Fold:
Amino acid sequence: MTDAQAQPQKRPNRRRKWLFRLAAMTLAPAVFLLVCEVGLRAARYGYDTRFFEPARDGRYYVIQPAFGRRFFLHDRWPVATPQQFPIIKSHDTYRVFVLGGSAAEGFPAPSFSFSRMLERFLRYRYPSVRFEVVNTAMTAINSNVLLPIARECAGYQPDLFIIYAGNNEVVGPFGPATIFSGFCASLRTIRLSLWLRSTKVGQLIRSLFVTENSKDRNDSGRIAMADFANERLSPVDPAMEGVYAHFRQNLRDIVGSSRSCGAKVILCTVATNVRQCAPFASMHSAGLSERELRQWERIYEDGVALESAGKYAEAIRKYRQAASIDDQWADLHYRLGRCLLALEKFDDAREEFILARDLDALQFRADSRINAIIREVAAGADGVRLVDAERAFAESKLTPHHLPGTELFYEHVHMNFEGNYLLAKTIFREVEQALPEWILQRRGGGLAPSIDQMADELALTGLDRWWIAFKISQQMIAGAPFTNQLDHAERMAAAAKKEHSLQHYTYPESIDRALERCLEELERHPDDLPLKKRCRKFITFRKEFDQFRREFPGHLQQASEKPPERAGKNSDN
Structure:
């Protein structure tokens, strides 16, 4: 055999060697990881990453409490309000999934969330149809978490998705001002990280490098806004562009996942308190010199003094002079808004209040660009309807001068009973437009329930109203970052006044009536898990009444005081 004939035989051998080496470098580790994954699963290592799991009776899906663990880098993670829905969907059922953060969850009282009110609206109008409105919303989560939830829910035969989200894009998981995990400019990297955390091998590796114990956080076992008090971010920080890009793509993918299973989608803009919620933090422009800063501070302080004296027109001139030096200070625009409102220049005031919200350096509220993205995504997708909640709240007859405040909100974003009712009613109009013909033909109910009827339907009692007022005044706005707000003192005074006006509902006989009312409603809806939770809370509260009164003197009626007489069925509402 000649050299020329032998040469072609050597080349295939070299190729086979390189292919073998490449296979050894890739397949061997893959097989090893696969074996480890199977072994860890067999040993039941790690935690479940599903949102829902079958209940023990095999009839229902229920919330899987460890779902949020992979999104948070410490030993506390949020858990959604208890929910359940049948594993086998009946032919006469219309199934709705609600996605969002704490505002959609109904914080601080999920029993009175807009989703529960929406379900009642639908039952009133179509009494022969079974509606399942499943609220998957959770505290502190953003669109990075909503996408896995939406993809899972797409496998449970949904008919409709309702998305009310956008408040936590900056502070939620992978946001630039979060305490949970570092910000990442690459959405692909974020999703790869989340996928790895869903594997047992990934959970093991994470446990080796991440200490799941956070001593510098609060010890209450819950995620609190105070944890974020030092996580300030300028609204013009380059990272904000990544926030908006990630939110847009996540929202598009949520819509795509929802539409892929045949479900329709309702996207909601996010309503916020702009009139009676000062910014949580303010930051100056980065390029401000020391001389400009001292000049700005002098002029700003002059404006504050004039505003305090009620000289609003003069204060406005000072504030605008300060803004000509640096217009990035959020509190400056909030003060401008208050002065303009006092002078009844309502349109100008609204612009300043909105700008103050958008410039907030602790971004717990959806800003104008977040809502613009929601409108953009809704307009660009088939089968998607828009509910402009921001506009609905501004145009509500309860809202003075198109400036939403505490008539609809407890504090910055969490809606009170009236706010949840308004949102539910607004969404209900769009849901009716999305209902299939077989449901529309079965319309048999009367008018939608009034707000008083809704309160009775959900068994809202005076004790509930006091409990919420107590939680807001003593556990929410009493701490950071609310203490940094320039209007904190007046808001605390208003909250304390509200709580005091409801204290008579804490008398033992009132507690007994509240429990009785909840038990009556539970007989009608025995599968209502949030209602069961409220009943247990009332029972515990009644047993521990004396201890609670000792721990919080002045927040409960003294036993010697006589409770008000009950005027009628709904006197506690």
